[in-house]
């Protein structure tokens, strides 16, 4: 094992946090220690335009859904708080959207002590093909997340009236 991999996790997290997201993800190839560190890294950023265009592994929406779900479950199961969760799916087509997965991911993040939640969804596209409201309505579990310090929402998201009260 190299000396860098032997550093305490919090130092490895600091290193990952300072790297560009794509470079941080590539550290899993360095060693088992870096792989374990990446999968327990409390910052999760999913940007569909980067993943779907540049990384052929994520061309299939099911694989993307599996990746995000597995990553959130691993953090939750390890009892790790999610410091930051950014979900940018603005470039996806409406047929690729799933309210169920958004709600599930947001619920898992809320249960994991989320501090920063940023959601960017395509305005007016979600649910249109099902004849439903064209906006994604933020679940109330976000209001229950006492650890939440920052919430950023795009124009594709509506806040439930109960949220403001």
Automatic annotation (TrEMBL):
F-box domain segment(s): 4-42
Pfam families with a match to the protein in the record: F-box
SUPFAM superfamilies: F-box domain
InterPro entries, sorted: F-box-like_dom_sf, F-box_dom
Domain of life the protein comes from: Eukaryota
Protein name: F-box domain-containing protein
Organism this protein belongs to: Stylosanthes scabra
């Amino acid at each position: 094992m190299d000396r860098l991999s032997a550093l305490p996790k919090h130092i490895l997290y600091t290193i990952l946090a300072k790297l560009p997201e794509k470079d941080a993800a590539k550290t899993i190839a360095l060693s088992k220690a870096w792989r374990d560190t990446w999968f327990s890294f409390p910052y999760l950023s999913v940007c569909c335009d980067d993943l779907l265009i540049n990384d052929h592994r994520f061309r299939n929406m099911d694989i993307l859904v599996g990746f995000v779900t597995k990553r959130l479950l691993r953090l939750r199961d390890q009892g790790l708080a999610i410091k930051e969760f950014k979900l940018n799916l603005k470039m996806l087509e409406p047929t690729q959207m799933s309210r169920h997965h958004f709600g599930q991911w947001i619920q898992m993040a809320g249960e994991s002590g989320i501090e920063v939640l940023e959601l960017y969804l395509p305005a007016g596209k979600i649910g249109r093909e099902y004849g439903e409201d064209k906006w994604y309505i933020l679940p109330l579990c976000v209001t229950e997340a006492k650890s939440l310090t920052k919430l950023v929402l795009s124009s594709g998201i509506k806040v439930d009236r109960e949220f403001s009260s």
